[in-house]
Amino acid sequence: MDQHGTERVWKVGELAAEAGLTVRTLHHYDRIGLVHPAERSSTGHRLYTAGDVERLYQVLALRHLGLGLDQIMDLLAGTVAMPKVLSAHRDFLAAQLAATQELHALVAALAATAENSPDASAERFLELIRRTVMVDDTFKQYFTEGQLTQLAQRREELGEQRIRQVEAAWGELIPKVDAAIAAGMDPTTPEAQQLAAQWMELLEGFHGGDAGLRDSMYRMQAGEADRIESEFCGPSPAQIEFISTANAARG
């Protein structure tokens, strides 16, 4: 540890050790102008100040959010305020926490099942892995990190009880729509429009009226229709066409 006046400074090796980085990484950040040490010792060694440490945190937080070094360079050139970086980092971690909690619930349920049926646990593990990876990858194709954070926050705000109520409502509504289609109901009739109104109300529980989330959800439905229907019992193209026509008739 070096002391320079009353402010603490770090040599490159000291900062690397305390930050859990490599000296090579800090050298690279210096070379490309991302994190310049504010001072040099009399022998030419890099000396990092508290301001440099804050800058390093900004870089690492933005990297954690998925930005490339070139993007970070452009962003920080505009003097990003620390509170904004901290808030974005906090929201990203909140989304990760929500995802981890959900995965914890799945694993807990699997653990309980495995205790009673150990011979079936391997099969269940494979199913859990496949679904977890698929859902994660699929959502990332259609939703931004910011939108995923919004969804995690919205889930937390709604609470598990409300989510179960919504799931139950879908379980009641979809068979009614199927029955209407099977009966040849005209989707412009008041009865069909009432079904569409219920459908749209449940969808709003997902996107909360946010146009960006709604559009991303529709893109995912269009792009993954077969998988959503077959693997997650989601709406079929026929159901969506019926509801879309009925909703348009509502004016």
Describe the structure.
With 251 residues, this protein is mainly α. Helices cover 75% and strands 5% of the residues. The protein is built from eleven helices and four strands. The longest helix is centred in the middle third of the chain and has 38 residues, at 145-182. The chain starts with a strand and ends with a helix. The relative contact order is 0.06.
For this entry, give a set of tags.
mainly alpha, 4-stranded antiparallel sheet, 11 helices, 5% strand
Briefly say what this structure is.
The chain has 251 residues and is mainly α.
Instruction: Please summarize the sheet with the most strands.
Output: 4 strands, antiparallel
Shape: elongated
Q: Give the spatial strand order of the biggest sheet.
A: 1-2-4-3
Given the helix and strand composition, which structural class is it?
A: mainly alpha
| Distance from first to last alpha carbon | 71 Å
Strand tally is: 4
Unreliable stretches covering 5 or more consecutive residues: none
Please give the share of residues in helix: over 70%
Helix and strand topology:
Layout: E1 2-4, E2 7-11, H1 12-19, H2 23-31, E3 39-40, E4 46-48, H3 50-64, H4 69-77, H5 82-116, H6 121-142, H7 145-182, H8 190-207, H9 211-223, H10 225-232, H11 237-249
